[in-house]
Amino acid sequence: MSKKRNNPPEIAIALNYDQQNAPTVSATGQDELAEQIIALAEEHGIPLHSDPELAALLSRIPLGDEIPEGLYHAVAEVISFAYLLTGKFPPGFPGGEKSER
Q1: Which residue in 29, 68, 94, 98 has a CA-CA distance of 20 to 30 Å to 8?
Q2: Is this prediction's pTM over 0.85?
């Protein structure tokens, strides 16, 4: 379990992205469940990004559903951030290696 944070998140969202379809919401949680989602991500080396407003919007999407087109740009920025943090690049990215799953 991760250490307690000074400002625990109210909401945590996990996304699944297969690089072929729109990302889907794979987990949502509030308060203690949000802490558990974050701890699990940290345990598995999954990059984290804090954006309370985006999290609030994504928390309204049913589990397993694709994100709506109106959120593509915001979520693409988060996914790009995760790629950069992990040193992976999507297929066809100029100058990058193909991402391995």
Answers
A1: 68
A2: no
Query: How far is 38 from 40, CA to CA, in rounded Å?
Result: 5
From residue 74, alpha-carbon distances to 3, 31, 35 in Å are 29, 23, 23
Catalogue all structural domains in the chain, each as residue range(s) with its CATH number: 11-86 (3.40.1690.10)
Three-state secondary-structure class, residue 7 = coil
Q: If you ran DSSP here, which 8-state letter would residue 37 be given?
A: H
Spatial separation of the C-alpha atoms in residues 37 and 86, rounded to whole Å: 19
**Tokens matching residue 43:** 């345990």
Cα 12 to its chain centre, rounded Å, is: 9
Q: Tens digits of per-residue pLDDT, 37-92?
A: 999 999 999 889 999 999 999 999 999 999 999 999 999 999 888 888 877 776 67
